[in-house]
Amino acid sequence: MRYFVTGATGFIGGHVVRQLLAAGHEVVALVRTPAKAVALRELGVELAEGDITEPATLRDPMRGADGVFHIAAWYKVGARNRDVAHAINVDGTRNVLEAARDLGIAKTVYTSTLAVYGDTGGRAVDEGYRMDGPWLSEYDRTKWLAHYEVALPLAAAGLPLVVVQPGLVHGPQDHSNLALVLRDYLRGRLPVVPHQGGCWSYVEDIARGHLLAMERGVPGESYNLAGPCLYWKDALAVAEEITGVAAPRFVLPPWIARLASWLMKPVNVLLPLPPTYHPETLRIAAGATYFADDGKARRELGWEPRPLSEGLRLTLEAERAALEA
């Protein structure tokens, strides 16, 4: 089979590409700068220069594909420059999905996120849950728009689309805020842990969920690729059991995080704040939970994420090796 992939140079997308190749499939990857995607070419990936925000660059490389994986996204929490978020997450998604529709692609898998549910208040919600704001971050807001105002309406209109919704994805070569927290933890430089929670999934399991969605997913359906749902303090307790490095004992009180978020709003207008002190980051740290139930993905896709202790061990071993290199 031949698959067209966006976001192939990213964290999740790179693992999806490798699993597709390992299964014997051909991959065409849309990349903005082919010279920066040499590693993909060396794997045998066909590179197509283009951008999801430029519709004219999508159709020729997508034409003839048996399926499309749209994984590319703007994923930043606490970023100062957020102007491109809507262009990439909303308009870019529309461009890719409409191209797949117009070309008659047999099946498309779109990577949404558990963040479209917002703060679930400690509940693990299923795919039927919906909240309509307010959103904790610009990422949450724009992915919500892409999910509910672009992807699902196109699916309802007949596009053979399957939506997958990962949670807090971890693994080697991650460059997100989560990876920064884990590195600080390994260095013993994490004095406090935020009172927030997420569903922790190892990146290879998330990639496998994408392939299963293409193979077994029902068009028009969404699937939570959640994994174990834990507060950060509980996840870091597992990390301590794995590494022997003491996890922070002090959990940031939600009221302090909320107050800090309020105080940082005017500061952020005048000065470029690092992501850690951005009002968005602090709002989430004030007790937000992105919890979801993955029973549907397990039943219908046969998705089986590994236990947190197993996936987190692999992640921490890779991070520790990188720190010691």
How would you summarize the topology of this molecule?
Elements (H helix, E strand, L loop, with lengths): L1 E5 L4 H12 L3 E6 L6 H6 L2 E4 L9 H4 L4 E4 L13 H19 L5 E4 L26 H19 L4 E6 L1 E3 L6 H11 L4 E2 L3 E6 H14 L5 E4 L3 E3 H12 L6 E2 L2 H17 L8 H7 L3 E2 L4 H7 L6 H17 L1
Parallel strand pairs: 1-2, 1-4, 2-3, 4-5, 5-6, 6-10, 7-9, 8-12, 9-13
Antiparallel strand pairs: 9-11
Helix pairs in contact: 1-7, 4-5, 6-12, 8-12, 9-10
Notes on the structure:
By secondary structure, this protein is of the alpha/beta class. It has a domain at 2-169 and 200-226: Rossmann fold (3-Layer(aba) Sandwich). It contains twelve helices and 13 strands. It has helices at 11-22, 38-43, 59-62, 84-102, 138-156, 177-187, 203-216, 232-243, 254-270, 279-285, 295-301, 308-324, and strands at residues 2-6, 26-31, 46-49, 67-70, 108-111, 161-166, 168-170, 192-193, 197-202, 222-225, 229-231, 250-251, 289-290. Strands 3-2-1-4-5-6-10 form a seven-stranded parallel sheet, sandwiched between helices. Helix 9 (254-270) packs antiparallel against helix 10 (279-285). The radius of gyration is 19 Å and the shape is globular. The relative contact order is 0.14. The mean pLDDT is 94.
